[in-house]
Amino acid sequence: SVAEIRSGFTAIKANIQARDPIRTLSILSYPHSLHKVKSSDRCCITHHLFNFYVDKVFKHCKTEDLYVNRKISSIANSFLSVRRRLQQCHEQNQCMCGQESTEKFNQILANYERLNVTSAAMKSLGELDILLNWMEKSP
Amino acid sequence: SGELHCSFPNPRNVRFESINMKNVLHWSAPEGTGDGVLYKVKYSVYGVGKWIRKTECRNINRTWCDLSNETSDYEEQYYASIKACLNGMCSDWMETTRFNPLTDTKIDPPVVSVSSTEKSISIILTAPEKWKRSPEEESVSLVQVYPGLQYNVSVLNKKTKKRWFFSISNNTLVVPWLEPGTAYCVSAQIHVTTPLLYSGFSKEYCIATLKDKTA
After folding, report:
1. A126 touches chain B (CB under 8 A)
2. What is the pLDDT of residue B1?
3. Which residues are connected by disulfide bridges in this protein (chain A) (predicted)?
4. For domain B12-101, which CATH number applies: 2.40.10.120, 3.30.420.240, 3.40.47.10, 2.60.40.10?
5. How far is A129 from chain B (nearest CA, A)?
6. What ipTM is given for this predicted complex?
7. The model's pTM
């Protein structure tokens, strides 16, 4: 569940963010903040982002710290279960993707591709609180 | 070139201390340095990265700097950095960890007001307000900031020492079927479910139920 993701991330947040020295780039926040997304686009973007984290982030986030690695894999497992539920919404056409959400997600991918894979993955992982704050914010 | 030579010891323990989103940067003086050390402060918005000098905290000798105004957008994250200088020598810039006002602030307990009848007490809880620039600025309750804000309420019968706990989402609670002419003490705490945040418990507010007129 999202609460498990939140508590797992809180336990390793300082460690993960300390591994990201780049202040001038954010994967999720710039140039357009997630918080500016229309509520009608929320489901689609959430679905895209969960695929993004499962497919492009977690697998590239190995560290030398076993505790941190265990927390990352438990977060990844929680993402997989939430993604499954989002997948059902998508298949039942309750998760429509408009032009704005597609553009928004393409911007996130562009930010991601500006860095090498490991740096981009670690930065994305360090921004999980941005994703969770946005998801839990009332529409 | 007028560049200051940097071999001065670094400020220590640089961090944000935040209560109700009043975000104040704190640090400890460099080890082994006495009086006369002056500090400079800069901050940046994560993702933008451009460092901005905080002019009101330029060449100060205290070890804190209020950055509430600069970090008031709680949908952003921030870094701040401190440099210490003395007699033309200065330290490195020492940075905070990434500061997220929404998850990293502490919350004050709610204000509790109580009233009573013969057999019940009514409790009204008021959550603290988010920090604001000036008294004239519109108040924003933390209830508006945290959709998942709830209250844990403790009610103690002073005579029997029996205690009840309630967890409520709205800010009013009526506790029925109480003993007339008895003192009850109420204390409350804020609990935010996401992100997970707890305030401390408020001090106890005591009130007596009215005496039974028929007795």
Report:
1. yes
2. 46
3. 43-95, 44-97
4. 2.60.40.10
5. 8
6. 0.87
7. 0.89
